[in-house]
């Protein structure tokens, strides 16, 4: 389970400057506070600098400036957090699935499964699907008709792809995610909802990550599209016809309504909701639980909601918000009246 | 995969007035902007009228008024969006499952499965369950003891019904949905939560649609009830004992707390939350992410939340909201004082 | 399906004072309004006292004070709701799974499954996993490498545990829940997200309940930790490295961001969101849909958000909130000016 790698080897892999014993065996990673003498730690956030001196870590990834005063073994790198990200995969206890098809899997005669792919127990792969080399399809996954998974993909157990879902290379999908569900399309006929068939598909770029229980619906006519390098956390809802630009990241519980288009390099914090049929430009940051009801055309950070208060105070604020239009009118009125009797008469504009 | 239907046949199916070549083969549907010469499009929303003239669509579904100035082939109908909804199913690439039971399925000896039902791979059907004619149970579904699925239902792969879940006719359930989970019922005994068995079931009406990863809990004592024609999008939470009236629609990520009763023909936009033990009357529309903390007795539209702002401005607004009660009192005080010194003394009421 | 228990036996089980016919057969539980002559009901909430006199219930669980004026059969207890919780399990129609391993299950040679455990159809149990006595693993569950489930646990069908998930005794997990998913950890390298391996695990205490489709991610380095007696409802997101204290309860749709620590005996209503890296002390109550952006150090109730309004009024309030900083400054200005001309010059402080 536990890998053992010498400190010198880690330095070589990272291109880091080694200070200390290159023969020291490293068996894992931990924080400065929790690391033991066989573990590597890292100092990325300056607020943890206070833990460096007393850390029991066998070695520490840090910047040159922080290495100066540190007496223990260290690997000096330009970006310790990025170095930690790289090295973390060497110590990942995640089991590696062997290539080959589990005998219990049910695979359509005309599906194409590369011999270097791994197909787990109770997997179903339907007609015309294609699984490329180096792909792992975890146990209990369902791969619908004509769906495709590009090289090096990793599907955790119990991922569902409907038909006509096209996935790029090196895509990671966590358990419970569903791609290609039928979007919420209904026409109203005298109060009764008539279903609209969802005849588009889903297109996922390369190097995408999709979290636990996240749903990405198929398009109504054309495809729902997720760009390259997009990272989607758990419990996210992506409705039909949405487009998400390259390298955009969304934290958990976001909901994106139908036909909305999100730019590149955006970041959505947890619980953000977007209405349908709007466009968000590149490089937008939305803070947690923001409700977005119109397009955003300027990069930058945006928010909605109110700050938390003790509940008793909150009830007063909430009641006052409902009186706010009245308050604003009364303030304007007062300004006018005070303007009549005070020397510097003109009040500020009402906006 | 691709159906081909002559324009004349489509006119006949829809009862539409055909203008143009009845022999023209139609192979699919697309928007006015994306449709090619073998595709049918539609003009429903007036804001897309600008795309009509330049559309490459082989034919267009439109109203008589819009057909006047249009030179291409067309099908004239009273409601183009509804016509598109109807015709969409003819071009749906969704695979049709053959009747019969997959040999890998595990079915209790006393379960009743109609010979005209289709049961997929790795399905489990428990004791006393009943599957009617024309039902499709997708691969990896679980149908608990005594649960029933009415005629013509369609369960996508990996849907879970616990025991005693009764489903009407023509119900569609997307992957990952769970019906009949044990609701959140606990009695607090000196700080420790004691579980209450959830002994009710779930009753789902006819023509209901349930989205990806949506959860509908069983009742604590009586059933949780979903009316006829209700449409639930993805990632929705319906707690125990909730009742949802006929033809109500909820967009994704809504959460309905226990014992709340929602009327008929309501519409809940995405991310709406309702507290428990309240009643919403018929014909209520709740805008996105609204928090509903008390019953609604008048039809109409309701909202909560704040409008999005650039984060720097939002921080100021959020801070001011916490001062709002103080501001309101100061405003009232000012009005009184200004009333003492100005001619039109009486300020407006505090509400 | 239906248990029949004599009223005298129920009195004995509960240690209740029986008033009435100890031979009366009880076949189920129902509310005061819905109970029939063979059903037991309960009066816990004083607001339902009005239904007592006309109830058709065969017997009622109630307090001594309420029993005085009641003519029907009754079981007098100190806490009727708690008594109902205890007795409810006797009437639970949930099927009991027999001990043993379903022949379709795929179990690694070195996994340890106690003979008194029940393993359902299409279950996968991977290398080194351990399933204790009295555990039920429902159909289609996946138990990853080295994961452990303590005595008396109950997993509904289709629950997924990744590798290295350690679960205490008597833990209940509903369908669709995923424990041990890879948390959302990425380092940004010039706009491109580099994945950080999630090498920690998940530790779940005793007597925990986890709802439908809830996700609990594994830790990035150390474990994500859920304390004893914690109750998590449906559709919840627990991010990597979160710690939840003993006996805390969360209603559906809550989202807890990474590394946040929640105390003991807290209650989170539905849809609450917490940002990452904060601490919530013991005995905190968060009302529905509250957004928590900083640590809480004092026990008590907290809220955010705005109260619902008719949409037309809401639009005005929402517009005014964006003007609030301007309004506050104008109010301050007015106070200063009015202070110059009125007798009691000093306005209340701005802060």
UniProtKB/TrEMBL annotation, chains A, B, C:
Enzyme class: transferase
Segments traversing the membrane: none
Domain UDP-3-O-[3-hydroxymyristoyl] glucosamine N-acyltransferase non-repeat region residue range list: 25-90
Organism: Pseudomonas batumici
Active site: 240
Assembly behavior: Homotrimer.
Reaction(s) catalysed by this chain's protein: a UDP-3-O-[(3R)-3-hydroxyacyl]-alpha-D-glucosamine + a (3R)-hydroxyacyl-[ACP] = a UDP-2-N,3-O-bis[(3R)-3-hydroxyacyl]-alpha-D-glucosamine + holo-[ACP] + H(+)
Assigned keywords, A-Z: Acyltransferase, Lipid A biosynthesis, Lipid biosynthesis, Lipid metabolism, Repeat, Transferase
GO molecular function: N-acyltransferase activity; UDP-3-O-[(3R)-3-hydroxyacyl]-glucosamine N-acyltransferase activity
Protein name as catalogued: UDP-3-O-acylglucosamine N-acyltransferase
BP terms from Gene Ontology: lipid A biosynthetic process
Family named by the database record: Belongs to the transferase hexapeptide repeat family. LpxD subfamily.
Organism lineage string: Bacteria, Pseudomonadati, Pseudomonadota, Gammaproteobacteria, Pseudomonadales
GO CC annotations, alphabetized: membrane
Entry keyword annotation includes Transferase: yes
Pathway(s) this gene product operates in, as recorded in its UniProt entry: Bacterial outer membrane biogenesis; LPS lipid A biosynthesis
EC number, as in UniProt: 2.3.1.191
């Amino acid at each position: 389970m536990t890998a053992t790698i010498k400190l010198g080897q880690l330095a070589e892999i990272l291109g880091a400057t080694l200070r200390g014993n290159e023969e020291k065996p490293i068996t894992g990673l931990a924080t400065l506070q929790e690391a033991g003498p066989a573990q590597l730690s890292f100092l990325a956030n300056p607020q943890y600098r206070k833990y460096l001196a007393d850390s029991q870590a066998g070695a520490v990834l840090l910047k040159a400036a922080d290495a100066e005063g540190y007496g223990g073994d260290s690997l000096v790198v330009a970006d310790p957090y990025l170095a930690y990200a790289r090295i973390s995969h060497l110590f990942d206890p995640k089991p590696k699935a062997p290539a080959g098809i589990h005998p219990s899997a049910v695979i359509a005669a005309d599906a194409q499964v590369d011999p270097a792919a791994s197909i787990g127990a109770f997997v179903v792969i339907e007609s015309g699907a294609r699984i490329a080399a180096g792909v792992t399809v975890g146990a209990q996954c369902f791969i619908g008709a004509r769906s495709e998974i590009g090289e090096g993909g990793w599907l955790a157990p119990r991922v569902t792809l409907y038909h006509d879902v096209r996935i790029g290379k090196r895509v990671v999908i966590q358990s419970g995610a569903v791609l290609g569900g039928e979007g919420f399309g209904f026409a109203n006929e005298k109060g009764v909802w008539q279903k609209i068939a969802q005849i588009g598909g889903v297109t996922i770029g390369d190097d995408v990550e999709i979290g636990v229980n996240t749903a990405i619906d198929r398009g109504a006519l054309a495809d729902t599209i997720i760009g390259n390098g997009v990272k989607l956390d758990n419990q996210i809802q992506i409705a039909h016809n949405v487009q998400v630009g390259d390298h955009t990241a969304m934290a958990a519980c976001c909901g994106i309504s139908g036909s909305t288009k999100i730019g590149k390099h955006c970041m959505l914090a947890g619980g953000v909701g977007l209405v349908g049929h709007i466009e968000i430009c590149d490089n937008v940051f939305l803070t947690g639980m923001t409700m977005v009801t119109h397009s955003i055309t300027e990069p930058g950070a945006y928010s909605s909601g109110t700050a938390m208060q003790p509940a008793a105070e909150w009830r007063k604020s909430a009641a006052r918000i409902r009186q706010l239009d009245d308050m604003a009118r009364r303030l304007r009125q007062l300004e006018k009246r005070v303007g009549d009797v005070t020397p510097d008469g003109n009040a500020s504009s009402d906006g």
